[in-house]
Structure formats: structure tokens, C-alpha cells
Amino acid sequence: RVYLDYNATAPLRPEAARAMTALFEAAAGAGTNPSSVHADGRAARKRLEDARAGVAALVGAKPADLVFVSGATEANNWVLARAPVDGLAVSAIEHDSVLAPARARAAAEGLPLVEIAADGDGVVTPAAVAAALDDLAARGARRPLVSVMVANNEVGTIQPVAEIAAEARARGALVHTDAVQAAGKTPLDMAALGVDALSVSAHKIGGPPGVGALVLCGGLALDPLIAGGGQERRYRSGTENLPGIVGFAAAAEAAAAGLDAMAGLGALRDRLEAAVVATAPEAVVFARKAERLANTSAFAVPGLKAETQMMHMDLAGVSVGSGSACSSGKVSPSHVLAAMGADADLCDGALRISLGWATTEAEVDRAAAAWGALYRRLAGSSAPAAG
Ligand code: PLP
């Protein structure tokens, strides 16, 4: 099979598998509590702190600022639901793990919330963020929180987070960014971004699922998420998921070393899009003109449903994604495409093809051929035969 759904989850990197296997096989390895004071516990503590440094390096953060959590959904919920702020401004193209807690909190606490639209290329402009903050200020918010992702999961657009953070800070706002899709695909430097909090997830970079991190620096003071034994600087009690964390760090180190190769995926992505457009000149490639992740392509053909296309690709042995597949497993119209102002008949037709660390040219060509075949079958006899 060909797996081209890296933005949903990346295959486990061999480096992560090896690091976790070694831990599982060590006499007092995976089962050791880093809080134990004996030598085995101290060894586990060292593994934990080495892993913290490895993950922090991928996002340009200080290890001491990083709190391990169960994934980016938890990190995003923690910030959006609990940050000590009096207003929320989130981009309309955020992942549901940002949008849902923001909406729930606004409804429960009566907090003003602005969902900032993206432009037609899928970019949230600093001017749009500034306008949202002015709106919040007019509604009485003095210390709001802005949350804009570094890169979008559906269309891959890279957001001007440093400029957005500068606008936000000038207006007294705190800033969170969901860096899940950017991590390991493009260089990240938390200090240069100028944000107060940043979320990352292991399984998007070739680590195991069920582990992620929230990096907290700057002025965002969060109350502990889980009370108990005081692990993770009292922020998140509970014995740490050491195997997952060790796998996360091994993946982070491999991803950091492979950033150039990731950038090189742009040529394969462009090859795929060229094949799609050659087959179907009416195809719309989303955010094609914007700065995008090199691995991500989202496109639609009027009248072709995403679900049908995915089924055909699946039968042809190619795993791809669509609109909100990463969060629901069911294809629903994309809120991201809607926020970009895409035509309604395209919002439930977008296929997302995302490449990654193990993708080959042959796999991309197989995907393009499979898509060409489904297009000719589904789009009717008017479709061109070649491509
Ligand atoms: N944020 C973005 C942009 C995502 O693509 C995902 C994917 O699921 C998440 C957050 C959630 O991450 P996790 O699966 O670690 O909870």
C-alpha cells in the first residue's frame, strides 16, 4: 500500500521504534518511575530530561519550559480552556482541538470570542488579527488570548505567526500557537515566533500517538492541569509516559536532522499537483499561491465528493485524507475551506494528500495514476482519457 496521509499521523520512524524497544527491553526500563530515588529511578529521570531537551530543540524552546502531555488536543484544550484571559481570538482555520474549547469556554463564561477568517489563500493576516483584538477591546477585553497555528493541517498554509504575535503583544494579548503540523516539516524557533505557548504532538512527526507537549514561556501562567504527585513541575501530575516520551524525542531528533529532506518533498508534491491538473484542468488546488508546507496538497474537482474519491483511492491501495478526517474519521465539509471562502460544492470535495519522511517518487506517481483512473471513471465520458 501507499501511505500519503502524514498530516493525520506519520508512520513511526525506525529511530523512535528502536528507542522505545530498547527501553522496553531494558531490565528496569519502560516500567521505571522517574520519581523513584533509587539508581533505576535516577536513570529514568535522566532519560526523561534528555528527551525533554530533544523535543525542545525541535521547536527552539528551553527544555525547562516544556510540559509533556497526552497530545496536542490536550495541550490546546489546556491553553484555550484555562488561560487567565478575558477574551479569545482564534483563527477560523484552527484544528477542532482549539476551536471547540474556545467556543465552549466563551459559552460557559460569557467571554467574548472572535473567530478570525483567513484570506482566499488560507492565510490569517496580522491585520485581521489586529482587527479582531480591537473588536475584543471594544467588548471590554483587556488581556485576551490569540491562538493562530503555524501551519494548517488541511491545506498546509504557513501563517505569519511572528508578525501576528507582534501585533498581539502590542495590544496586551497573550499568544498561543499550534505548531503540530509545522514541527519537523519546517524550522521552528519559539523565541523568534514571540509566542507565550506552543503545542506539538509526537505522532505527527513519526513518534508514537498519545504523547505531546505544551511549551510555556513568556507571560502565560497556567494553573496545574492535573493535581496529584506534582510531576511535570506540578503542571501535570501522574507518572510520566516514559516510553512514549522517549519515542517522541527520538522522532524529534530524526525530524530535526531531516528538515532539508522534508523541504525537498515540495518537488514531489508539485509533480503530483501537475499530474492532477493535467488530468483535470478544472481541478482547484487550494492555497497554491500561498507559502505552504512542502508535503501538503489539497485539491478538489467540482461535483466529486471527497468521500467517494477516498474510497476509490483506498481500493487502489492508496491512503489519503480529506477535509477534517484527522479529527473525525468521517468526512464532513471542511471548515477550513469554508473560512477561506471556497465554493460550497468544493468544501466537501477536497482530497488531502500529505507526504512524509518515507515517501518516494514511485509512491507519488502511483497515487497520481490512481487518482487519474478514479477521475476518468467518476467524472464521466467528457473527461480526457490521458493523464
Ligand atoms: N492540531 C493540529 C493542527 C492537528 O492537525 C492535530 C491532529 O490531530 C491536532 C492538533 C491534534 O493532535 P493530537 O492527535 O496529538 O491530539
Describe the structure.
InterPro entries: Aminotrans_V_dom, Aminotrans_V_PyrdxlP_BS, Cysteine_dSase, PyrdxlP-dep_Trfase, PyrdxlP-dep_Trfase_major, PyrdxlP-dep_Trfase_small. Its EC number is 2.8.1.7. Residues 2-366 form the Aminotransferase class V domain. By secondary structure, this protein is of the alpha/beta class. The chain folds into two domains: 2-10 and 259-378, Aspartate Aminotransferase, domain 1 (Alpha-Beta Complex), CATH 3.90.1150.10; 14-256, 3-Layer(aba) Sandwich (Aspartate Aminotransferase, domain 2), CATH 3.40.640. It is built from 14 helices and 13 strands. It has a seven-stranded mixed β-sheet with strand order 2-8-7-6-5-3-4, with helices on both faces. The chain has a four-stranded antiparallel β-sheet with strand order 9-10-13-12. Bound molecules: pyridoxal-5'-phosphate. Pyridoxal-5'-phosphate binds at residues 71-73, 76, 95, 97, 149, 153, 178, 180-181, 201, 212, 326-327.
What key attributes describe this structure?
single chain; 387 residues; alpha/beta; Aspartate Aminotransferase, domain 1; Aspartate Aminotransferase, domain 2; seven-stranded mixed sheet; four-stranded antiparallel sheet; 13 strands; 42% helix; binds pyridoxal-5'-phosphate; iron; Cysteine_dSase; Aminotrans_V_dom; metal-binding; iron-sulfur cluster binding
